[in-house]
Amino acid sequence: MKHVHKSVLLWYSPREMYALVTAVEDYPKFLPWCDKAEVLQRHDDGMTARLHIHFAGVRQAFTTRNVNETGRSVCMTLVDGPFSQLEGTWTFSPLNTPGAAAAPGDPLDAPACKVEFSLKYAFSSRPLELVISPVFDRIANTFIDAFVKRAEQVHGPR
Q1: Integer Cα distance of 92 and 15 in angstroms
Q2: Model pTM?
Q3: Which of 52, 81, 86, 150 has its CA 20 to 30 A from that of 132?
Q4: What is the Cα–Cα distance from 33 to 15, expressed in whole angstroms?
Q5: For the chain, what are the domain ranges?
Q6: Coenzyme Q-binding protein COQ10 START domain spans which residues (predicted)?
């Protein structure tokens, strides 16, 4: 099983970054490998979503059940696709300006946050792994960078 773990400190609030991650329908606008993204069902605690990958001649799709804690985290588990296992977590932790007292109000509106992305995955067969793994490895390792660029596009550079 492969494991990717990335984190970044950003001058965007946890609420802003959470909104970008949960706006699944917008993924094709800024993820070059995402051919199509659809929310299949909305739940009280999240959604079931399907992503279609088209990258380097490889076309695949997978579905995840995402459990969301508003402004704080998104936990993904595999429903179907070319994986035997797929588990992912986004966490958004509020940060205050160094040396400053905690800002009053909702911590999800803090001036900055730490974004962490963790993904564990394995493919359902060796032939699939040989074909898809190089593509998916690249996607997984650049995922958080794509959301940082999206934050700049949506909210402006900070």
Answers
A1: 8
A2: 0.91
A3: 150
A4: 25
A5: 10-98+109-155
A6: 12-147
69 Cβ contact list (under 8 Å, min separation 6): none
Beta bridge partners of 74: 68, 90
**Residues 10-98+109-155, CATH architecture:** 2-Layer Sandwich (3.30)
